[in-house]
Amino acid sequence: MYAIDYEDFGTPPPVNGEKGAAADVTVEIDGRPVTVPDGTSVMRAAALAGVKVPKLCATDTLKAFGSCRLCLVEIEGRKGYPASCTTTVAAGMKIRTQSEKLLQLRRSVMELYVSDYPIEREPTAAEARTELRAMAEALGVKSSPYAGGQRHAGQPADESNPYFTFNPDLCIVCSRCVRACDEIQGTFALTIQGRGFDSKVSASQDEPFLESECVSCGACVEACPTAALMEKSVIALGQPERAVTTTCAYCGVGCGFKAEVQGEGADTEMVRMVPDRDGKANHGHACVKGRFAWGYATHTDRVLKPMIRKSIHDDWHEVSWEEAISYAASEIKRIQAKYGRDSVGGITSSRCTNEETFLVQKLVRAGFGNNNVDTCARVCHSPTGYGLKNTLGESAGTQAFDSVMKADTILIIGANPTDGHPVFASQLKRRLRQGAKLIIADPRQTALIRTPHIQADEHLQLKPGTNVALLNALAHVVVTEGLTKEDYVAARCEPDSYAKWKAFVAEPRNSPEASEAITGVPAERVRRAAT
Known about the structure:
alpha/beta; 4-stranded mixed β-sheet; 3-stranded antiparallel β-sheet; 17 helices
């Protein structure tokens, strides 16, 4: 059996057992039989058969586009040479991915691409390992007969963004950056401007990147196959040598990253941060903070060695790890011996991972012998934790981020995802563009209320501190107008507790009309939101 990540080349069809699952079909690719769900692309089926089809516009994060024409294949009984990324399999299909004719077509296509790309010159360190050059080398293309002396050469690079450069001399107008901005980030800051030879990638209304709608998420940079869009750190330092898996600590989304570095040990130098394709929270996407705001890692003020001082009046001085740990342990023991076991404790930052927070609580409970452990996340989440604990028996979140993609209506209360949790906000906006309804309960005017591409269906601009009254008013409409899904309730709620709650919220004092004076939200808006 051939193994491949099903995230490759677009969204796979549902597998057997899932809602809307397609039946399996067997096809033959270069003489190798492979069984895949009906509706699978030929390119994906080929990958499952262990066959690599040349490609340039297809990626593991973007929808099939079919523009590069490098992934052409031959299908027995079918005229022409269809693109494998946009052609789906059918039972009994016999596919050929390699032939003299296909090689000729692919070389001609690549020669057209490099007719406006400096393929002949020696690449810089940043350009050396690009997809375009790798594909040209695989096809044996070293120059182009189509150039004719006319090229987009000598254009000024856009250096306005502090994190990456756009060099139009290296751009082949493949649209991958535009598609990444649209499909992954959802900002729609990039477009292809002009037609024919005058076509070019443009940020907003042909503005510098920094002045455009671009939010510097870096999806366009990662999507670029030519180094036209490239991190300034890579331009300065060259390509990284290895990668270390890590977790971004800027917010609570918990995005997985690959820290790409050069050197070993004390000589290790950060080159760039790349979102991890296997990151369960971010699925290979990032925001400006996670991808680019890692300057603290090499900042001159960063403390690299342990330091101690015996009094706040003393200066810090560097010591060995052994001395630092020994001193900390002796001081904890001294304080406990003098003031008792409960005189010490531990607190973790909200920027710590779950694993780090777990280790701290283990140290406090097992080492210090008490329960004096906390995390600063409790400052803003103690009300939700209390409510969840008392209603569901567990204070942890009840849903994964991916569940938003199955939501038909989304209610946001007092949160600002575009600012606080941008990667999740990108996923949320993707679902909204698919047609999900959005209700926002917030005293503020947040970005999600109205943007050029999405708009909240209702903004319940309540008075601060009246969230519970508003929720009761919404629930009042649901239970008094027969909007409850009784089978759902019966499967998940204790009958007696639910009956008491239902009777309470159904009281006239919890109606939208009665709550209007408390929340400041017009009753008709509450009723529209509830229904």
